Amino acid sequence: MQLNSLKVLDNLPITVEPIPKEHSPDIETDNPTHHSPASTPANGDGTHIGQRCILLPSQKIEALRATFEKHQHERQLVILQDFPDPDALSSAWAYQLMAEQYDIQCDIIYAGTLSHQENIALVKLTGLPAHRWTLQTTKSKDLSIYKGCALIDNQGTTSQLMSLVQEAGIPIVVVVDHHSLQGELKAEFSDLRPSVRATATIFTQYLQAGMLALDNSINHHVKCATALMHGLRSDTNRLMQAQEEDFLAAGYLSRFYDSQLLNAILQANRSKRVMDVIERSLKNRIVQNNFSIAGVGYLRYDDRDAIPQAADFIVTEENVHTAVVYGIVHDEDEELEVVIGSLRTTKLTLDPDEFIKEAFGQDNQGRFFGGGRTGAGGFEIPMGFLSGSNENSAYAKMKWEVYDSQIKQKLLRLVNPRDNPIQTE
After folding, report:
1. Do 73 and 190 share a structural domain?
2. In Å, what is the CA distance from 322 to each residue of 313, 341, 343, 358?
3. Is the pLDDT of residue 424 over 80?
4. Buried b or exposed e, range 256-287, using 16+ CB within 10 angstroms
């Protein structure tokens, strides 16, 4: 589907039958979003395309407005997961622009790196104001200037920076995410909707409800709309897994985004290192019960995003409905190692969030090592005491074999529980 074709949605008279109250779809939020037919334009609490209206609850919009008003003239941190994707990056930018209306200055930060070619292109070509703060960088900063933080497309469990933010006594003001609840959250405002395909959809609904009036004549509005379209497209698998509200959000963004700029972002080339990781995943994969599982060994920190790209590739193999790719990522700056993995699936009955949580469980603080959404998921397992010290190739090989066997055992226990996944001679 060509994204430009979404513009026709503005002119299509969409009619629907009323949905009986007892069968109305629920969205998991404090105040569910209601889908209802409308023949007149929505007011500040809703949006419409043709005769179809997506209403955000007035309580939710008013709560967000009240939160912004309460924190006028302050400075906030907008914290992303360590390896932010287009959905997180674009949504954070939308949050920053919304907060500016209340004279709230926001710094968008992440601790990891941008290694996926499309993420790098997104930030460079749009000028998206996101900055990398390593743990060492953050320790040297005066965090007392920040009066609050916002967690966008995450709940703090996938950011190394949260411990430092909490130590500095910075309260969580806002949490907006489309993933399932990861643990106890104490925030002034929260909007968690695991049934929504992309956080960019949620933020587009905020914009439609009047939290920010997008203007085609304002350059950064056009670029932010382009970023949101990319985030929405990315998290819905090029709109193939999009739901009605995602299409409606895309239809609204189609009035503002730059299609040529988006095409330039999507045309970014894969690096040779990414292709090498894909080759390794093909070489090392094992296939059981239509699951393809591949360990790719050690990767540089900057090549972390090669893992989900490899999963995207091997799930396209014939007779494979689910792919899991993982490797050990080494951060030379922090002398840390972590097992990073990605899951991709085309099987409608497989819930990536449940699968990953059941496979890898929780840490000693009750935080899950991973989770997911429709069609995709990921996990991150710190190696702790065994991190680093890979100068000895024999030792590094032995360490990888242990982790490789352990991950395969946990995955195959679910894929084929009757088999013994560890082969010994």
Report:
1. yes
2. 11, 13, 7, 16
3. no
4. bbbeebbeebbebeebeebeebbebbeeebee
Both 117 and 234 in one domain: the answer is yes
Note the pTM of the prediction, 2 decimals.
Answer: 0.65
- Is residue 313 domain-shared with residue 370, that is, in the same domain? yes
3-state secondary structure labels for all residues of 139-192? HCCCHHHCCEEEEECCCCCCCCCHHHHHHCCCCEEEEEECCCCCCCCCCCEEEE
Taking all residues of the chain, what is their mean pLDDT, rounded to a whole number? 83
Q: What letter would DSSP give residue 210? A: I
- Report the chain's C-alpha Rg in angstroms: 22
Q: What is the CATH number of the domain that holds 139?
A: 3.90.1640.10
Residue 24: pLDDT band (50, 70, 90) is very low
Q: What is the band of 333 on the pLDDT scale with cuts at 50, 70, 90?
A: low
pLDDT at 48 over 70: no
> Are 359 and 223 found together in one domain?
no
Domain boundary among 230, 246, 266: 266
- Residue ending a domain, choose from 266, 293, 309: 266
Whether residue 289 sits in one domain with residue 175: no
Tokens of 143: 């965090």
Surface-to-core class of residue 342, CB atoms within 10 Å of its CB (0-12 exposed, 13-18 middle, 19+ buried): buried
Among residues 392, 301, 367, which one has the least CA distance to residue 340? 301
- Closest C-alpha to 290, from 230, 350, 214, 377: 350
Please list the alpha-helical segments (H only) found in 17-141: 58-70, 86-100, 117-126, 135-139
- What is the percentage of the chain residues whose pLDDT exceeds 90? 58
Q: Is the dihedral of CA 245, 247, 249, 252 positive or negative?
A: negative
| Residue range 243-265, pLDDT digits in tens | 899 999 999 999 999 999 999 99
202 in helix, strand or coil?
helix
Whether residues 234 and 286 fall in one domain: no
How many alpha carbons fall within 13 Å on the CB side of residue 251? 20
